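Internal tracking record. Fields below are filled automatically when a chain is submitted to the structure queue. Please do not edit lines marked as system-generated. If the sequence contains nonstandard residues, flag them in the REMARKS field before resubmitting.
Queue: standard
Priority: normal
Entity type: single polypeptide chain
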Amino acid sequence: MITIDTEGLDEVQSILRAMLERADNLSPVLKAIGETLTESTKERFVTSTAPDGSPWKPNAPATIAAWLAHHSAKGGWTAGEKKPLIGETRMLSMTITYQVPNPFTVMIGSPMDYAATQQMGRGRIPARRFLGVSADDAADIVDMMVQFLMEGK
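SYSTEM-GENERATED OUTPUT FOLLOWS
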């Protein structure tokens, strides 16, 4: 004879129902994920690294020379101070934002016209990936999703 202990089954079913209801609209957790990815993306401009941790290609000598010529009047600038993807206005790094267009999607990027060229590379411009999910980002996303589905937070 097989006996099935159903003690606690109602509680398990209740938890699973609540998780399924929360899964119908992931917008709250996607906003938290968007904020996390925005911050980690902005940090890549400080460290000059791609989401996989690899360093960005350095600036070409011509880029450094043009930058130095433009900034020579200000004095005190050195070639080592010109970091890849950091222009005078810093607009690319300052315009990283996210959107949650529906309950199941988060998008992150920059509205700058040249963002795709910098991300993917083109011609003599090497790809310098600044968008993407790092291993740390992935772990954070999993933690946020589990917490949201389990607790609604």
